[in-house]
């Protein structure tokens, strides 16, 4: 029943080339101003009818699960009928099987009586959200919003025709026929899946299917957010957030290789926030900008893109220099921000922000040397030296300890034993969990990192996730129902009952690219891929299998795809096979 969609996705993964776009001649010179759609559209039928309001009001709903033609037909043969009376509303809830970005297409037969009908369409990332009420943006517990994307709307639909509705992130759709004493006939109700048509060049497999699923879920989460620009979320936060981009860019490098969406997004962000502004109005996000520029260059070796950003890179360094005095005090911004869950721990956030700045300056110095900006390279070293006059303590905050380990301000072993490893996955976050995993790897705690990935990110899968969330707390799971079913009496709603800060209740995004950290982490540390020379001209392969028996995968580079396989023998020794394209040296 979903064969067509699967075939199309397979073509995407195989790397089908897009056809050239032709504009009708009647547009003439006007065609120069037309914006083409970079995305591909698939029509995906629902996999399951989750619920209907009443057997006497909704009939023949199973036809909606079939692949259709997309063409309206006269008559009402083999269609789902929805009849609303003055006292009862005909409603249907459809499950499309996985998180999607896009909208809904309705193909309709003749209404009875024949006229336009009023329907309510609700998109949901969970069953509960698709059945929730909208609170008009008040962000109340148990209510949903239309922030950033319309997901709850009332509209007119035609008879003997078709209509396309919505642009948001969802898995479930509820349709209510609101016109009393009227019957509408639905021939088809496919989701419009709108995505970037690119192949998955990177891959990962091992003998633990849970880890395989986590790797692919992280990859798919970022893929959905690779729209015209690189978004943070496909339902809410459909914006470019430079800090949030860092895990997404790491995932793109591990899965898709170079993609123009990264360059475009960095360019647009700098246009939106010209100096001396901080990117996104957040000082730490300008630090992330420097780190992303460095890592993106190391993978792709594109010096031209760095040169294009020369003035912005040096301008950010000058801006930072103004804000750090000779005693190491810094006043980059009154508000410190790492991620939302760390916000209450202000001393820890202070330590983390200073560590992030040290990390960014280290990468910025490399960028300046590449750009032959020696004075700014010297300035980076001088700022770093001033900062180190005051090294703050993490105050038990895992986010801060992870950044201090990465920045070289705290020994990884100490950061992990005293802070990050305490209570395992407790107090991990979806965004900064990536850096906690990196610190564990620095300390050689690969097995603990694998256990935490299984527990924390796997915990979302256990609750029905097909993409990773804006935030997740292990304390939520104890009495929670899955997102892909109705919540039984006495159970917690994993979507509606939780969430905090800017994402309470159903405003909580269930597809957030910053949560994809385990995907690049497994490529970097289980497959063991380390880039030694820019453009991937030299790679060091150092596997860390932990309790795994074997792992294999691919890694995309500008010179082609590298194949890697590691097998652990009975004696514990690992035998590795690496196949790399010409031009790549493997250590």
Automatic annotation (TrEMBL):
Pfam families found in the cross-reference section: Bac_rhamnosid6H
Record carries keyword Signal: yes
UniProt cross-references to InterPro entries, sorted A to Z: 6-hairpin_glycosidase_sf, 6hp_glycosidase-like_sf, Bac_rhamnosid6H
Keyword Signal in annotation: yes
Domain Alpha-L-rhamnosidase six-hairpin glycosidase: 201-393
Gene Ontology biological process terms from the UniProt entry: carbohydrate metabolic process
Highest rank taxon of the organism: Bacteria
Signal peptide (residue range): 1-19
UniProtKB keywords: Signal
PANTHER family in UniProt: ALPHA-L-RHAMNOSIDASE SIX-HAIRPIN GLYCOSIDASE DOMAIN-CONTAINING PROTEIN (PTHR34987:SF6), C, PUTATIVE (AFU_ORTHOLOGUE AFUA_3G02880)-RELATED (PTHR34987)
Protein name: Alpha-L-rhamnosidase
